[in-house]
Amino acid sequence: MKTLLKTFAFVNVLICTHGYAQNINVDSLLDAGSSEKNQSKKHFTEATFASTRLIDGHTVETTQGGVLDLKISHRFGRLNEGFYNMFGLDAASMRIGFDYGITNRLTIGGGRSTFEKQYDGFLKYKLLWQSEGERSMPLSVTMLTSVIYETDTSAVKAEKNIYIQPRTTDKLSFAGQLLIARKFSQGLSLQLMPTMVHKNIVDSITTPNDLFAIGAGARVRLSPRSNLNLEYYYQLPGYKLPGTYNTFSVGYEIETGGHVFELHVSNSTGMTERTVISENKGQWQAGDIHFGFNISRVFTVNKPTSTKL
Fold it and tell me: What is the rounded CA–CA span in Å between residue 81 and residue 86?
């Protein structure tokens, strides 16, 4: 009887040990499979920049589908105007506009600037989206095309040296940009912006209608809610209008929930692609520096029926 009990106990130990070993193997296989599955998922990079604008120019960010983004930009006069004009605070120009996300990749928008009484509209599409995992993508690439219509007839005449009433087509200009960016870490994002500006009319036959420039931008995170933004546009030799200078801007950006608020300084008076990139007449070394601010506020207008990108 004792021998039988010992044999039964030994068999039980073997069964339990075998079962435990099987459980370990199954759990290990499940964990390994889950890990491989997680690695195969595609994770899109979010918040390469805090807003769809860096300072004056666009970023690779597009407005989420069904979201309306209200933009207000304010640019005061030059600091070298002195105390009488309160270092430029007595004079100001502004732009108010809206961006709307048709999808998470496609955005349309437009605005009105008091500087030269300009209207602008644009179409923006995120072609590539930085991601990790299956078929990872190292960069984000967004295409932008915009049109600017200038309604200040006197400014058009002065700029183009014409003395007759400008035609509607004379007041039109266009811009195309390829925005290429990478978020290297939570603290650093960099962007390049090859740009072409086309003007329907110029002041002489020796002045090209197509002007080329390349921009560079950076976002450096200073705290969980604030960033340092830098933006520079270099006009390529042979495509730089006489009396114009490259635009350089520095901004301090604060994220506050649904708002993004930015304080900045720039040597550009205008706030559209044409005026910032190809028509800037301010020099930093001469004190032609403008203080300004940007405000972005988003509103959910239409909740998307699909979460697909």
Answer: 8
